[in-house]
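Slide 14.
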Amino acid sequence: MNEDEARLNVMVTMFRDAIVGKDAARLAQLFTTDADFVNIAAMRWSGRDAIASNHARMFAGPLQITMDVVRVDVRFVREDVALVAASWKREVAANASGPGPTLPPGAGELTFIATKDAGTWLFASAQNTQAMALAGVPAKS
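Slide 15: predicted structure.
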């Protein structure tokens, strides 16, 4: 694993830590100022500020979870652009609080596009996809 790949793996861990720690500001700092984020409900948020404010709202409500990243794959499209795929599993947090129900246990895939500018990697885009059962299709492993 080279230095860039290692850094991108660390960023995925930082993303996970921000989710579990309900730290929307820290999560948003992993993104470019003009980044796009599509959550598992297909809500699209454009810009770092929108990513932060919408995650803060979700942390106060249905995002009462723990999350484990079980696999990270990095593919460099160019030396300054990478596709980062992270498989995750979600459980309900033991200390879940807030209005309304939380998300149930589940699994899915996060796909990030990361860009390197002036030696610094940031996520320019993220898509979070919830795994779901489909008749006749093997379950996600």
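Speaker note: The beta strands are 31-38, 44-46, 65-78, 81-92, 106-117, 120-130.
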